[in-house]
Amino acid sequence: MVETFNALVSLVLCVACAWAIMSPTVNDGIVIKVGLICLSVGFMGIFFFHMSVPAGPHPLAVAQALVHLGLLIIAAGYMLRRKRHKGASCRRASDWVQRREISQ
Question: In angstroms, how far is the first alpha carbon of the chain from the final one?
Fold first, then answer.
């Protein structure tokens, strides 16, 4: 039961990361996109580990390492973005998403 719940949550997180990677409205940059790819692949690995017969702890450790690596890359990308825009903070939604022009 717990493994199934963990697998479903991992699948949802994998799909959310994949959506953020493929969405043209999310302006994340190359570094953060690489981190999101690592997260998505790691969560997909965790999903497959819980849904199949476990072959030992090594596949799960590799998937968790990908998740941790993705989080570190995303944090580094965020810090690079903050360093590049020293005067302005990236707290508004328009700093991360491209604006759409409204035509009347």
Answer: 52
Find the DSSP H helices in the chain: 2-22, 29-51, 58-84
Cβ contact 17:39 at 8 Å: yes
What angle, rounded to 10 degrees, do the helices at 2-22 and 29-51 form? 150
* pLDDT tens per residue across span 55-95: 777 888 899 999 999 999 999 998 888 888 776 555 655 55
Are 36 and 20 contacting, i.e. CB atoms less than 8 angstroms apart?
yes
d(CA 20, CA 73): 15
Both tokens assigned to 33: 């996109």
